[in-house]
Design brief:
Blueprint: E1 2-10, E2 12-13, E3 16-24, E4 28-32, E5 35-37, H1 45-57, E6 60-74, E7 79-92, E8 109-116, H2 130-139
Parallel strand pairs: 1-7
Antiparallel strand pairs: 1-5, 2-3, 3-4, 3-8, 6-7
Organism: Vibrio mediterranei
Cofactor: Mg(2+)
Domain Nudix hydrolase: 1-136
Length: 162
């Protein structure tokens, strides 16, 4: 079985959440928070999230604390996913999908939009419990503890997470 680590960001503004409308041949159309898999050039999951946000939304973001973790098995590719959901504390720029041109997600991602939180129940959304579980964590300022991102060898005490 293959494995994938994905970092995703929860950005909130005026009772709206930034979401991607995506489509694939197995699950159809659904909405997810922006984010993506770690690449060889990424030093940490937070750094991967900054890169993915720029690619998928056109926004430059400041990534805050870890909120929660989700795991799932993608049966179509026999891939096991671990998703790390972070609070996005701030952003700048204009929403755009232009950075996706030439990347493998250009056909998968259909739209980036600020979606009213109350409207999420009308859509297929992953994680399915984003409104009932994830958003209340943010309101309660109940964050997970992330112990850091370290590199074996010299300077193995340097935290690359922030």
């Amino acid at each position: 079985m293959k494995h994938r680590i994905r970092a995703a960001g929860i950005a909130l503004q005026n009772n709206k959440i930034l979401m991607l409308r995506v489509r694939d041949q197995y699950s159809g159309e659904y909405w997810i928070p922006p984010g993506g898999g770690l690449e060889d050039s990424d030093v940490s999951s937070k750094q991967a999230l900054v890169r993915e946000f720029r690619e998928e939304t056109g926004l430059d973001v400041t990534v805050g604390p870890l909120l929660c973790v989700r795991e799932f098995h993608e049966t179509s590719s026999d891939r096991y996913h671990v998703e790390l959901f972070y609070l996005v504390e701030s952003w700048r720029g204009e929403l755009s999908l232009v950075n996706l041109e030439g990347l493998n997600d250009s056909e998968y991602i259909q739209q980036v939009a600020w979606v009213d939180v109350e409207d999420l129940n009308q859509y297929k959304v992953f994680p399915a419990d984003i409104v009932s579980t994830v958003l209340p964590l943010i309101q309660a300022k109940q964050f997970a503890t992330h112990l850091g991102s370290y590199v074996q060898g010299e300077n193995d005490d340097v935290n690359h997470l922030d």
